[in-house]
Amino acid sequence: MSVLDRIVDVTREDVARRRRDLPLEQLERHLERRDIRPFAEALARPGVAVIAEFKRRSPSAGEIRVGATVEGIVSAYEQSGAAALSVLTEGPHFGGSLDDLRAARAAASLPILRKDFVVDPYQVVESAAAGADAILLIAAALDDRALAALHAQAVDLDLDVLVEVHTEGEVARVLEVVDPDLIGINNRDLADFSVDIERTYELLVDIPAGKTVVSESGFRTREQLLDLERVGVDAVLVGESLMRSADPGAALRALAGMEADER
């Protein structure tokens, strides 16, 4: 069983528990008209936009930044030029929660992606109720029917959807099943959590023009982002390298080229 399979199994159990604690009918009462922060639009800027992530830990890296607060990190990201935020809300393996997402929304005005292993319609409603502006759907975790249904449900709730792929077959499948506007290429192999940034370059040729492409995982330098810009990647999602830096805001400014622009 791969790491992804184990996480999805635990996620289904966790969702079932949350549904017992707060039935869907009650959760839906929390769906009130909210201040929509368009996630996809935030990525439409010159150069490569940075989606800066708050992430507590991971199965491969363990604890990432002991004592970090959501408010402190996301405020630094907003002040340092992030186009959008990502908040990892999975609990058992990554230490996150929807409380982290709510705290990020209160602390910053940027649009927020709920990054989690969404496999159940309950989670889509949860995301909207907690204040997410977008959700992540991982192609490797969903069959065609579930991918289509969850994508449609999210759109109905005014959520943008980042559909994540990491193989040629997944690119072809998601284009056929949902034809998403936002496509994320994950350079991390979810079977063993190894990272290869060449995956973005290999899969980019299979994605039609007009899609917003987000490259995820493995980026640490300004030069890497300039290379992505040259081949037409629209945005990157960066978390661990920023969270591990002595000054996440300064690291983000360097990555985005803001310090060079200021000079």
Percent of sequence in beta strands: 15-25%
Architecture in CATH? Alpha-Beta Barrel
Q: Report the count of strand segments.
A: 10
The N- to C-terminal Cα distance equals 51 Å
Q: How would you state the average pLDDT, rounded?
A: 94
Largest sheet: 8 strands, parallel, barrel
The dominant shape is globular
Full CATH superfamily name: Aldolase class I
**Structure class:** alpha/beta
Low-confidence stretches: none
And the CATH topology? TIM Barrel
Question: Could you give the topology of this structure?
Answer:
Layout: H1 3-21, H2 24-28, H3 39-42, E1 49-54, E2 57-58, E3 62-63, H4 70-79, E4 84-88, H5 98-107, E5 112-115, H6 121-130, E6 134-138, H7 144-156, E7 160-165, H8 168-177, E8 182-186, H9 198-204, E9 212-216, H10 222-231, E10 235-238, H11 240-244, H12 248-256, H13 258-262
Parallel strand pairs: 1-4, 1-10, 4-5, 5-6, 6-7, 7-8, 8-9, 9-10
Antiparallel strand pairs: 2-3
Describe the structure.
By secondary structure, this protein is an alpha/beta fold. The chain has a single domain, classed as Alpha-Beta Barrel (TIM Barrel), CATH 3.20.20. Helix content is 44%, strand content 17%. The protein has helices at residues 3-21, 24-28, 39-42, 70-79, 98-107, 121-130, 144-156, 168-177, 198-204, 222-231, 240-244, 248-256, 258-262; strands at 49-54, 57-58, 62-63, 84-88, 112-115, 134-138, 160-165, 182-186, 212-216, 235-238. The strands form 2 sheets. Strands 1-4-5-6-7-8-9-10 form an 8-stranded parallel β-barrel, surrounded by 6 helices. The longest helix has 19 residues, at 3-21. It is globular and about 50 Å long.
